[in-house]
Structure formats: C-alpha cells, structure tokens
Model the fold of this input.
Amino acid sequence: MQPSDVNLYLVGFMGTGKTTLGRAVALRLGFRWIDSDHEIERQQGKPISEIFATQGEPAFRAMERDFIDHGHPAEKQVVACGGGLVVQPGMLALLQSKGIVVCLHASIETILRRTSGNRTRPLIDVEDPEKRLRELYAAREAIYRRSGTVVLTDGRPLAEIVQHVLRIHRREAHEFVRAQARARHA
Ligand code: S3P
Done:
C-alpha cells in the first residue's frame, strides 16, 4: 500500500465536525468519503433512531463494529465515524490497524450549539438534551483524548483544520505503511 492511499478515520463526539471536515479532506486527498451512520442506515434500510428503538443500542454497536471490520474498502477512504464508535472496547486498536485515526475535539458549548434542535440522534432525543450531552461528554472525554491525534475544531476556519488533518495524514501514513511492512516480515 502507498502512504497516499491509507484510510483516514475521523472520530470524536457528536457535533465536532466529522462530516463537514471529512468531506473537505476527502476532496483534497482524492478519497471517497463515507459516514458509518449513513452506511449502517443504508444496509439496514432504516434510520439510526429506529435501529435504537427496535433493536437497541448494543445491536447498533455491533453493526458499527461489523462496518469497521469488513464493511468498507481498505484504501482511499475517509471514514466519518459515529460519535460512540471509538468508545467501544477494542475499537480504537481496530481502527488503528486499518489506517490513521484523527479525533476531532470541540468545547461542550460548541457541541451544544451545533447539535441543538437536531432530532436525528437518539441518545440526545430526550427531555433535557443539554443535561444528557453534558453527561455523555464528561463520561467520554478522556477516551476521545486518547483516541488518535487530537485536533481542536473550535473557532478555527475550516481550511486551516483541513490543512492540519492533511499534515497528520501525510506524516502518519508513512509510519503506518512501514509498520505494516515490518509486521509482514516478522
Ligand atoms: C452516537 C453518535 C451519532 C450516531 C448515534 C450514536 C453516539 O453519530 O452514531 O446517534 O453514541 O455518540 P454522530 O457523531 O455522527 O452524531
């Protein structure tokens, strides 16, 4: 595999900009942009909210794992991962075995602003979404901070964040390909 073909996985909390940034980065890399939520919805033929309601969260988490395991191409993909995907035990290592992992980070205030009024996310489609978001954020923040290279998205122009993520991909993809070659020859 060429370093320039190594997949890029964007992880991070809801509302950190994975979709917007993922599209822009994919365009620059000449990669395909895919979103784990959209792919799961397409495969299942129903929205995430319905999967949660009828099959439950554990079933959705298993679908996320399947998608990462063998549900997408191994090269030239920018994958925007649903916010809880990397929180599951073992998922970070799985992502890192497949490509470069970048974790987008934003303040809770930014996240509250970006997610307000959106009813498509079942975890925060509750009576007091702000309370729920704050709880989830507090419970997960430490995990995100350990998930790949962390990039702050608060108050920065999109073009600057794109450049930052492209630099990380360029730098880390070389090491990724070398590590793969070492593993093959071990
Ligand atoms: C979730 C985040 C959502 C989606 C699902 C659960 C989470 O993705 O996968 O509603 O557990 O944080 P986004 O981060 O794209 O909103």
